[in-house]
UniProtKB/TrEMBL annotation:
InterPro entries assigned: C5-Methyltransferase, C5_MeTfrase, DUF6339, SAM-dependent_MTases_sf
Pfam short name (any one): DUF6339
Organism: Streptomyces zhihengii
EC number: 2.1.1.37
Domain of life: Bacteria
Alphabetized UniProt keyword annotations: Methyltransferase, Restriction system, S-adenosyl-L-methionine, Transferase
Biological process according to GO: methylation
PANTHER family: CYTOSINE-SPECIFIC METHYLTRANSFERASE, DNA (CYTOSINE-5)-METHYLTRANSFERASE 1
Name listed for the protein in its UniProt record: DNA (cytosine-5-)-methyltransferase
Low complexity: bias regions: 157-173
Family (UniProt): Belongs to the class I-like SAM-binding methyltransferase superfamily. C5-methyltransferase family.
GO molecular function: methyltransferase activity
Lineage: Bacteria, Bacillati, Actinomycetota, Actinomycetes, Kitasatosporales
Amino acid sequence: MVPAEAASRDVWSFLALVLLPDVAFWRYPRPPGDRVLGTDLTRHVFGRLWWRAQLVRSPDEAEPYGALHILGEAAFDQIYARREALGGSPHLVRSILRVWNDLDRRGLNERDTLRDFLKRLLRLAPFVLFDGIEEASLDAELRYVAQESVDAQRPRTVPATPAVSASPASPAEVVREAGTGASPASSGDEGERAKRRLTSVEICAGSGAQALGLERAGFDPVLLIDAKADACFTIARNRPHWEVVCMDLLEFHTEMRPEVKGVDLLSGGLPRVKSTAGISTSQDADERRVLRASVALACSMRPRAVLLENLPGLVQSPDFAADRAWIQHSLEEAGYRTDWRVLNAADFGVPQNRSSGFLVALQEPLFSRFSWPEPSGSRPPTVGQALGDSMASGGWTGAAAWARAANSIAPALVGGSENRGGADLGPTGSKKAWAALGVNGDSLGDAPPGPDFPEDATPKLTVCQAAMIQSIPEGWAFHGRKTSTYRQIGHAMPPPLAEAVGRALAQALRT
């Protein structure tokens, strides 16, 4: 092993020797093909050692490399694996080591505690410029986060809340109390179910509604990725043990997180793509880039199964034929067989006429074992049945009559674009459909109608009621103000539909 001191005395020579062997050895005759120190493995190992030594070096200390003794090689590798967000900052890494060295970790698994600590720092990374905080303040902030990790690892303690605290809760920011722990199984022996849990990675995770449905179907996420901060905080608030990375999917690649390779399922509810026939070249094509990045990620991750959700048009419309062709070709080149299907959430107990287009891809023999879920066979509740008690909760005397008149399922909730105004129930056609059910779709209400609300008036939905229409459970809390919260809800896949597809996939994967 090259001592760290030797590396530091002549950094450029070390780099030339280890990382650029073809240049370093040009003076010395050697047999053809003899790379001496220049194999890929050697360059990787010595490069990592050099990175570690220079990252922790404190030239003003009596022992400049003393911090190397704080963590072992495996622990440094955990930081190195997150180098783009954490390990690329010597200022931050030295603070991590100082704080870690002072922690009381007696009786704890060091690897699990460090991993939890780094997860919490990753949640901070998109919002905090670590290099801009002076040393003492950074140490104090990291010490607080590290103590949360220690407390979370102690036996018989409640898991700590996310590292970044939300602003003070208000009715518009948190519409329901947060749920904790895993959802109960719908059926079957709990012990057997626990033995057969499957792993997943969720991209474009949103508020976590699809991941929640997949959790009920037996999938535990290794990682969830979303670009919206409020959505990431929503997931962390409800499932603090899930690892959430808040970043643009276009910037993510598999080598950042090697643990995602070979998981059982890659899933995602992707941004709604527009057909190439319906947009001009000058319009924003971010949604299509995300679609391409998702397919490329599936090919590099090589999960056992892929599940991507989008508009029904992507599955059925001739305008998307070219898109379907390249998606299918790309996945077939990676060894997958694909199938497409449109499913309506109303067929699975959701009080809403909401169709989604699905792509499923599996390798053989798994593909031959997969069958799409069949409708539940029972009628979903009407809007009045789903929201009647909520509409009456504020004392409105017209709630019972309203519930009787709202005697059909809802139209699809429309989350809306980030580029348009506040929260409402969608375009003119959607608002007319809601008006037929006795709902004012021009905006959302802050609370159910009270005793002074006229009996024959049309109430507005609250964000909490919108979540009920999506069949998102009452215990799921949302972070953000009204518009952000409604968009998280409106863009979500109803958990019962995600659960139904997830159970079909789980059966194929476990057979």
